Amino acid sequence: METKVQPVNEALDPIKREDKQLNRPQTPLIVAGLVVTAILMVYLLFTQVAMQPILLILGLLLGYTLFHARFGFTSAFRRLASVGNGQAVRAHMVMLAVAVTLFAPILAFGVSFFGTGASGYVAPVGVSVILGAFLFGIGMQLGGGCASGTLYAVGGGRTVMLFTLLFFIVGSTIGAYHLPFWTDETPSFEPISLATSTGLGYGGAWIVSLALFGFIAWITLVIERKKQPPRMAPLPKTAGWKRIFRGSWPLFAAAIGLAVLNALTLMTRGQPWGITSAFALWGSKTAQIFGFDVASWGYWQGANAEVLQSSIFTDSTTVLNLGVILGAFLASAAGGLFKFSKLTKGNVAASIIGGLLMGYGARLAFGCNIGAYFGGIASFSVHGYVWGLLALAGTFVALYLRPLFGLSVPKPKDSFC
Q1: Spatial separation of the C-alpha atoms in residues 48 and 313, rounded to whole Å
Q2: Which of 6, 289, 384, 389 is most buried, judging by how many CB atoms fall within 10 Å of its CB?
Q3: Is 210 helix (H, G, I), strand (E, B) or coil?
C-alpha cells in the first residue's frame, strides 16, 4: 500500500496550514490594527524618547516578516530532528551570515544612531546556559513556538499561544528571581567573544563565523542525503508587487530581512533584538501589584532597578515586542488568514508547561532563540553556539514528550518515506 507523503511544513509547522490559498484581505481587522498602531505611535512620540517610535516600526517590520515567511526556529529544529529536513536551518545560516557581516563594523566602531554606542550580546558559558537552553529547547517544542514564534503566532490569532505567552511570562519571572543562584553558585567560564577574546579581531571572527555557518549548512545537506526527507511544501502566494503585502515570502529573503532589521535595531538602541527580558519585566511588575518585594531580588539590582520602577513603555524590548505582535496581526489580516484556533486539553497543557520551561530557561541562558541564539551568534559570542546545540538536544527529548499531549510527531518511516 502506498504511503502518502505529507509535506514537511504542513505536518510540523506551529501554525496549521489551513490557508491553502489566500483569502480576501480582512479589511476591518487591518483598519483596527492600523488604528491601534497609530495610537501607540502617537503615545510614544509624545511621552517617550525618539528611539521608541523607531523601535515600534522595526518591531512591526520584524513581525510582518516573521509571519509572511512563517520563519520559525522551533519548526526548523523539529524538522531537522524528526525527519532530517535542514532547509530552514540553512536559512538560519544565511540570516546569521548576513547578520555577522553587518554587526562586525557596527560593533568594531561602536556606531549608533543616537550616540549611545553599540554592544552585542556576549554572555558566560556555564551550567546556567547549558541547562537553560536545554529547557528552552524542550519548552518551545511543547509550547508550539519559540520567543519570536509565540509573539507572531499570538498576532496571527493562534489562540493556544496566549497560554504559552502567559506562562512564558510566569516562567521568566521565576527565572529572574532564581537567576542570582545560577550565576553566582554554579560553575561558568568568563564570556567568550570570537572577536575580542581570541585575538582574531572582528575581521578574523567574521571569517571564522562564515566558515562555521558553511560547515553547519553542509552537515544538514549530509543528513538530508542520508534520510531523504520530503521538501517543504510551498506556502500560498501572489504574483508581482502584491506579494510584498500578501502571500508568502521565500525563507532566504526573510532571513536577509531579519538580519538587516536586527542590525538596524542594534544601531537604534545600542543592543541587538531581544524579547524575553520584557517578559521578566511584565511579570515582575505584576508580582509587585500582588505584594511581592520584587525590588529586593538580585535580578533587579543595579542598572535594572530603574527599569523596574519606570513605565513599561520606556523599555525598548517591550516596544519591540508590541510591534512584532501588531506586525504579525497586520500580515495575517492582509492575507485573510487571521482566525482563532481550536483549544484542546492537550495543547493547553503543553502550552502551559512549554511556556514555563521557555521562560525559566531563557533567563538562565541569558536569552532565547533571538537574544542568545540569533543575537549571541551575530555578536560573535560562543554562548550563542552552545545555546543552539543544547536547544537542539532539548528538541530531541521533546519529540518523545509531544505525543503525551496529543501533539503530532511524524516519523520518516510512517509518513515521509
Answers
A1: 8
A2: 384
A3: helix
For residue 9, the surrounding DSSP H or E stretch is helix 8-12
List, in sequence order, every residue forming a beta bridge with 188; answer none if it has no partner: 126
Whether 262 contacts 99, CB under 8 Å: yes
Cβ neighbors of 240 (< 8 A, separation 6 or more) are none
Whole-angstrom distance, CA of residue 416 vs CA of residue 355: 29
Q: Which DSSP string corresponds to 21-69?
A: S-----HHHHHHHHHHHHHHHHHHHHHS-THHHHHHHHHHHHHHHHHHH
- Could you tell me what percentage of the chain is helix, strand and coil, using 3-state DSSP and rounding each to the nearest 5? 70, 0, 30
pTM above 0.85, yes or no: yes
How would you class 258 by CB atoms within 10 Å of its CB: exposed for 0-12, middle for 13-18, buried for 19 or more? buried
Q: What stretch of H or E contains 183?
A: helix 161-184
CA 232 to CA 90: how far, in whole Å?
A: 13
The H or E element spanning position 256 is helix 251-269
What residue has cell string 508580582? 287
Assess contact for 176 and 363: CB atoms under 8 A.
yes
Contacting residues for 26 by C-beta, under 8 A, at least 6 apart: 333, 334, 336, 338
Which of helix, strand or coil describes residue 49? coil
Contacts of 308 (CB under 8 A, 6+ apart): 281, 284, 285, 294, 295, 300
Per-residue pLDDT reduced to its tens digit, 293-322 = 999 999 999 888 999 999 999 999 999 999
More confident of the two residues 16 and 283: 283
For residue 31, how many other CB atoms are within 10 A of its CB? 11
Nearest Cα residue to 172 out of 276, 256, 78: 276
Rg, Å, the chain Cα set: 20
- Domain segments of the chain as ranges: 25-408
**Structure confidence at residue 80 as a pLDDT band (50, 70, 90):** very high
Q: Are 170 and 362 in contact (CB under 8 A)?
A: no
Q: How much is the pLDDT for 271?
A: 97
Q: Tell me 6's DSSP state.
A: P
List, in order, residues 6 or more apart from 302 with CB less than 8 Å away: none
pLDDT at 245: 74
Task: For residue range 319-348, list pLDDT tens digits in order.
Answer: 999 999 999 999 999 988 898 988 999 999
Closest CA to 378 of 181, 109, 162, 97: 97
How far is C-alpha 405 from the geometric centre of its chain's CA atoms? 23
- Dist CA 235 CA 411 (whole Å): 22
CA distance 142 to 348: 10
